[in-house]
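PROTEIN DATA CARD
Card holder: DNA-directed RNA polymerase I subunit
Chain length: 218
Origin: Zygosaccharomyces mellis
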Amino acid sequence: MGDSKSEPVDTQASESEIFSPPSDYKRVKHLKKFHKKRNDEELWLIKLPRSLDVSKLKTLPLDLNGHEQPMPVEGGNDDNTQYSIGEDKTQRGGQDSSNLSLLVPEENRESLKVSGHGNSLKFDKIFSVRKTAQIPNIDYEKLTVPRSNVVKIEGLRRRHYASGYGPEGEDEEENGKDDLKEDDTSKEEHTEHKSKKHKKHSSSEEHSKKKSKRDKKK
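Structure generated from the sequence above:
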């Protein structure tokens, strides 16, 4: 039996822990002023991979119907890698993006805060830039190797078959055996019937012989 008592947790020590930023964190200085959102504007979130240099983007093609569009990168792409942009369907914008909040600079431009008073601003649309690999054209006819059959050894007999299958002609052999059994049964019945007739005939002959002997005695 083990001890079911749990160790006490020091809640005061856990609450007094000070948040420490990641080791590669760099403090942003001289933040630009973020103007207030007007009624005729939408707030979009565009997520980029770390490997993409934003300064090399020529254009930012967007398809509002949800289809991904290729993104041309200045200077080409390394290792046949391309980028495409499309709307992220896993995180919808508007009121459904409750897990995403917008951070804006404070008045002193030294720190960030959650935008809005009471309620933070919501993203109307969310787009994601994905890294895609360019698949080269493959000539399958040249790469396809014809299948070669396994060399069969003469004299071998298959012993095991798949479920529901058997050797060729097995059904015909079984039907032939059934026919032979029926023929044997009919022959036996015919022989038995013949022997009964023979017994009856021999018994009648014996009876007639006995009767003739009695008449002679008289």
